[in-house]
Amino acid sequence: MEIKRSSGLIFHPTSLPSNFGIGDLGKSSYEFIDLLSNSGTKVWQVLPLGITDNVEYSPYSSKSSLLGNPYIVSLENLENDILQMEDIEVFKELPRNYVDYANVYKLKNNLFEKLAKKVNINEKSYENFLENEDIRKHITFITISEAQKEDWNYWEKEYEDYSDNLFELVVEKYPEIISKHVFLQYEFNNQWQSLKKYANKKNISVLGDIPIYVNHNSADVWLNKSLFDLDENNKMGFVSGAVPDDFTEEGQVWNTALYDWDQHLKENYEYWVSKLNANLDKYDLLRIDHFIGFFKFWAIPNGDTALNGHWRLGPWDTFFKSINSKVDFSKLLAEDLGVELEETDRILNDYNIPGMKVLQQRIPHNDGHNEEHPKDWKENVVAYTGTHDSPTVKQWLSESEEQQIKFYNSYLNNLNISNESDVWNFIELTWRTPSILAMTNVQDILELGKEARFNLPGTQKDNWKWRIDNLDTLQEGLNKLKKLNEDTSRLNTLT
């Protein structure tokens, strides 16, 4: 990974303060970058920034691996002063310390439809934007999807496959819907690129995230049906998920589409080359979620539980050999948690791609649970206190078994770590690893507990909602973080 010894914070933009019920790409994002810079913290990690579904609102469940989430477009930063003051009034009653997704999306949708009537997609700026064929294809999909109000395999035959003629037909039949999506994606693209440029100016790198799988009802599958494991009716016989383990006894059912890896090989993995490069244009660094899926994956009969799944083989080394010359591996991070395979380690070593170690998962439960001391972790690894799927550090400390806390305390004593706060002991232990990059969640520098957990895997309600209402609350924690960055040789500077 192209990075010096440094540190970072996980903080999804939806969790930022704003006047619109959800964090966005506006003023608070820039202020957060300033705070990161002042604290000597190098990396801002975000979750996937794609369009979410309207049920669970998960960033990992999207209709497009390419398009941005319109609900985090900053309304205050829209071009041409298209927003009027009266448009803002309706957002004042929304909560400021969590995201009420249903109401935020409803209010913003009403506003988006109003704004779209003022947009002419024949203007030069929009025409230039739509010259990108992939963007044009994905916008065509989400436009038809909104108009048809059902999954793509139930659409009328004229919408079965993309063509330039279909795009023209959609513009003709659904002018307001497609104008809305063109406008919002144009704004998202411009706002995100401006924000990333500002971050880079402050010597901050943005670490993005890409799920390995995509929804069946997505532009990706609609445009590339042959690349997915579908039956003769374009439905999924098997779906993705996670094998049962110590953390989830019944496993997890993700209900996303599985790949037909043989077909990907025939096409030289061009779908993946295009998708990875599009995301590397968006971010400085890129985390690939569920990296193990390139080696083996859990296939679950559609409609069944994960307990009845089975292992299938992925493309293994043929995938990496094929795309190595076309994708910049030095910008990649592998989420290689869970099932451990020697082949995964070999690929990561061969291509110098760092994997991950999560401290919460690496402290033994008992004497028979053999784990490396954090001080012996490899350099080419990203060390995390926890991830967006983990308990906060405070929650983990309060819920862990006595034997695990005993091991944890022995690690602290071994490294002479002694802070007034045990949360900060945990963070410091992660920062003192040899790992090239050390990461924690913003909730942890705030020393928050269970109430601030961002996601509980396997559940469908009350996730992704946590947010702060004032960036000033971060200052004390960031001051401590700056001192820790200095003490552990992780301090990032502008030069």
Summarize the structure.
With 495 residues, this protein is an alpha/beta fold. The chain has a single domain (6-67, 194-487), classed as TIM Barrel (Alpha-Beta Barrel). Helix content is 36%, strand content 12%.
Keywords:
single chain; 495 residues; alpha/beta; 8-stranded parallel β-sheet; 5-stranded antiparallel β-sheet; 12% strand; glycosyltransferase; 4-alpha-glucanotransferase; GH
Cα distance, first to last residue?
19 Å
Query: What general form does the structure show?
Result: globular
The tally of domains stands at: 1
CATH architecture assignment name: Alpha-Beta Barrel
State the helix count. Answer: 17
CATH topology: TIM Barrel
- Element-level helix/strand string: EHEHHHHHHEEHEEHHEEEHEHEEHHHEHH
> What is the radius of gyration computed over CA atoms, rounded to a whole number of angstroms?
23 Å
Tell me the structural class.
alpha/beta
Low-confidence parts? none
Query: CATH superfamily membership, which one?
Result: Glycosidases
Widest sheet: strand order?
Answer: 10-7-3-2-1-13-12-11
Major β-sheet annotation: 8 strands, parallel
Count of DSSP strands: 13
Helix content: 25-40%
Give the integer mean of the pLDDT values. 95
Percentage of residues in strands: 5-15%
Provide the CATH top-level class.
Alpha Beta
